[in-house]
Amino acid sequence: MLDHRFACRLLLSSSVLGLALWALPAAAHEVDAAAAAAPVAADAADQGLTDIVVTAEKRPESLQKTPISISVMKADDLANRHVTSLLDLGDGAIPSLRVAPFFARPSALILNIRGIGVLSDSNQPARDQGVGVYIDGVYMGRAQGLGTAMFDVDSIEVLKGPQGTLFGRNTEGGAVNITTKKPSGKFKMSTTFGLGNYGSYKAETHVDLPEFHDVSVKFDGIISHRDGLVKNPLAGASDFNAYDKRGLHAEALWKAAPNFSADYAFDISYDAATSAYVQAITAGSLARAPAQPLQPNRASVATVGVPQMPSVGRTHGHRLTLDWEVQPHLTVKSISAYRELTQSQYDNGSANLSVYAPGGTFSRASLAQFRQNQASQELQIIGETPRLKFAAGALFYEERVQDNAQAPNTMQWNATGTAATVLSIDYNTVTIDRASHVKTDSYGAYAQATYTPDLAGDILHVTGGLRYSNDKKVGQLFTINGATPVSLTGVSGPINLNASWSRVDPMINLAVDASRDVHLYGKWSTGYKSGGANSRSLTYQPFAPETVSMFEVGAKTEFWNHRARFNLAGYVGTYKNVQVDFSASYLQYVNGVLQNSNRTTLETTNAPGTGHLKGIEAELTLNPVAGLTLNASYAYNSVTIPNTANPYPVVSGGVAVISNTPVKIYPVYTPTQSASGSLDYEMPLRGAKLRLHLDANYDNGFYVSANDPTPNIQPKGDPSFIVNGRLALADIDMGGSKLTVSAWARNLLNEQHIFYKAFSQYLGTYGMFNEARTYGLETNVKF
């Protein structure tokens, strides 16, 4: 019998391809009609879809003419979905992009595109993510700090597939390119204030000052707060899943000459968030206390109150962008940046999983301190001739990172397991469980050029690109499992890391303008994620970079007199040297004798063989009548990783053994099927406008752990269907200002699903539920 999920996928894929085939002749017909009736087309242009400008190839270009798969969210899209940080895009607004917290900690984010990015624990100094995040051209080096509130974003571009040529290291899955609004040189002010359930409030102000002596200045400030979604019964302790974000941003743009500008920006942010609540769904083999019942449905109150405090992140940074138009078609740009972050990570969200023993301690709290600073310098040369467009550049990046972690128990059961008391914990005296530091130096040079030959009306565009990168990591692991490392050869002392890798990433793209509104392309590109070392490891041995090679074909089309836009992409690729984590027993020599322990470390190896990637992405936008815009997007992403054996010793029956049996490796945070749709309607009223937004987002669930929990198979998260909405009475004329009043809701239908689901034979099935419905009212005034 044909599996119904495969049948649905086949039907949807066939429908997508059918739409593409139908779009081509339709688009060509529209072009012919437009040529015959240019005045009519000009009149209709105001009723069609607006062009979207992107900077994916280091210069402003039309989305439809940029031959790679890109999804874009503009400022209005973010406001309609009430997006305050990147974490809010975790509902699947862009189907190929997945954003999630690192386990229960929203202080560090996981980003995957097309199933590539993070497979294991990247919340460490000497490990990187495979999706690069850029803000105004500056690479954000750490998973920490990505959850801060965003300042006056103009657009978020999600560039899918390897971006190793133009964006470099750690973009094997793609890149998230965030652009903020620049100073305008005219006085403008926009202020928003809002209130919502769970004690939430938001205040946001953006001020543009008039240009003075060729200098334009802009200030942005934001405060966003929400109380916890799950009540903590312990008096005085923070609730679960709360946040408090605030920040300031200042930018000055100096137009020193008609062809030269200097743009300086400074930002500072504070982000405090409490951990999510982890629930026990089914029982395992170990006893549970009577006071800790299973919670198979989304909880609003924790079973037992535990000490809990926010994880606090502080970031600040400087950026200086110099832009020199040497001549009308040649620009030299310099982007210099320096950033610092500190991040405490306090996680006590797993008390509901606790094992019971009379008088035993439980509620293992994890407190980690993380510090990073980074400096980067990029020089770009961007130019064009009548038949050649080119971009070249060089980049240097340096960062210094250090972290440590403590993990004491904070609670103690009574003799019957019906009540618990709080242990007095002084973190100044608690043993440091692990600690390390690392310095990373990376430099690279790239060049990319697009040539349009004098052939068939200039319909053909051939692009070639190449990038050389070199990475070096020098670090030290000086504490592991609460003690100075002792190697398997019996040597006690810190373990040093000194490793480097070099890499060349090519790209070839062939694009054809089949008509004015139909653009086809085929692309081959590669990318990589840097090698590193695992700071949870006993050995701290370096692992190699992982790489992606991908072929992509696509079509970008507009038709129906520019009231419809349909973009389609398909890809296949290979995935090599995938960085996989395994548990290993804590083994060391003491007085010349090999000691076994029940404690474990986390080790990393590169999977053997070749993994495979394939997928389809489709986006459809319609403007059937004035004021109504419909969007639909779909992604099928399939990732296969070679089965891999754990090469590290594990204690079995009191003896350390190494298994040579390969186990299944799962792609994580990657639903095979995902889709999103939205409706935006605007109706003019006397002196105002009525605006309605609805969006719905679906995925069929995903894995969150890469390995099978012996002897069972890995559980998959639940399918999800999240609906968000916003209703606004906008642009009310206030005599010199405009007022907008809106009501918004996230997870409007209050749907619940377990997005993070895991299993242990000892603890049973456990996981985290999606957030409950949130809603509120906002007012915005613009001068």
Describe the structure.
The chain is mainly beta and 783 residues long. It has one domain: Beta Barrel (Maltoporin, Chain A), CATH 2.40.170. The chain is 6% helix and 54% strand. The protein is built from three helices and 44 strands. It has a 22-stranded antiparallel barrel. Strands 3-8-9-6-7 form a five-stranded mixed β-sheet. A hairpin with a 4-residue loop joins strand 27 and strand 28. Helix 1 crosses helix 2. The longest helix has 33 residues. It starts with a helix and ends with a strand. 44% of the residues are buried.
How many structural domains are formed by the residues?
Answer: 1
- SS field, number of helical segments: 3
**Proportion of β residues?**
over 45%
Name given to the CATH architecture: Beta Barrel
How would you sum up the global shape? globular
Main sheet?
22 strands, antiparallel, barrel
Estimate percent helicity.
under 10%
Determine and state the CATH class. Mainly Beta
Report the count of strand segments.
Answer: 44
Distance between the termini: 64 Å
Weakly predicted, low-confidence segments: 1-45
What class, by secondary structure content? mainly beta
Q: Radius of gyration from the CA trace?
A: 27 Å
What would you give as the CATH superfamily?
TonB-dependent receptor, beta-barrel domain
CATH fold annotation: Maltoporin, Chain A
Mean pLDDT, all residues: 91
